Amino acid sequence: MTPYEAAVVALVAASVFFSLVAVVGFARLPDVFARAHAASKSETLGALFGLLAAAVAFGQGATTVKLALLAMFLLVTGPTAAHAIVRAAALAGATPWTRSNRDPGPSTHDRPEATTGTGGGSR
Amino acid sequence: MTPLVSTALLAGSAALVVLAAALCWRVVVGPTTADRVVAVNVVGTAAVVVIALLGAALGEPGFLDVALVYALLNFLLSLGLARFSVEQGGLL
């Protein structure tokens, strides 16, 4: 077990751990906002650890540059995509889970007259 | 590239595939469209990482180009679904 091997194994284990945290949060949390929160943050960190493990395994070279670009792209776009989706859901009338509102129910995006907020399209 | 490193990378890829398959349950259950879209986005991110890990394990740098293109398409897919299936209006 050289330090190189130990580094790769530790980074892969960290990637799998954070992805597992994301999946557990996605399965257990009550509403779409909390689920997207868990997914965007934890899954992005797991992806970054996985790409770092691949970079350590490849060694130095052009592949490391490609992996760094891929990691930066994922770091920027993962939370951005989740934010766009959840903002669209909130504008369409999804209500968050609260202690007094234990069952928020399905989103009301199937009923266009229930939309409020700004920035939506012309309806 | 020692055998232990290859085995670790392949095992990590297999674990990520299993986790992505577990996320497909949320895609089926829902209950809202936004849940399904976010779950598909996360599955796509896991697929990008799996492609990169397989490229590292098999020693093929060409897989990274596939992973880059897949990440781009995953992002555009998420934005398109957010625009056309959830909001039917503004994009960001």
Automatic annotation (TrEMBL), chain A:
- Write one Pfam family the protein is assigned to: PhaG_MnhG_YufB
Would I find Plastid among this entry's keywords?
no
Renumbered to this chain, region (Disordered) spans 96-123
* Keyword Nucleotide-binding attached: no
User: Which stretches are transmembrane?
Assistant: 6-24, 45-62, 68-92
The domain of life for this entry's organism is Archaea
InterPro entries on file? PhaG_MnhG_YufB
Which keywords does the record carry?
Answer: Membrane, Transmembrane, Transmembrane helix
Which is an annotated GO molecular function term of this record? sodium:proton antiporter activity
PANTHER family recorded for this chain? Answer: ANTIPORTER SUBUNIT MNHG2-RELATED (PTHR34703)
What protein does this entry describe?
Na+/H+ antiporter subunit G
From TrEMBL, chain B:
Q: Name one GO molecular function term.
A: sodium:proton antiporter activity
Which keywords describe this protein according to UniProt? Cell membrane, Membrane, Transmembrane, Transmembrane helix, Transport
Gene Ontology cellular component annotations, sorted alphabetically? plasma membrane
Membrane topology listed for this record: Multi-pass membrane protein
- Transmembrane ranges, per UniProt, are 36-59, 66-86
- Write down a Pfam family by its short name: MrpF_PhaF
InterPro entries found in the cross-reference section: MrpF/PhaF-like
Keyword Transmembrane in record: yes
Q: What is its main location?
A: membrane
Task: State its location(s).
Answer: Cell membrane
What is the official name of this protein in its record?
Cation:proton antiporter
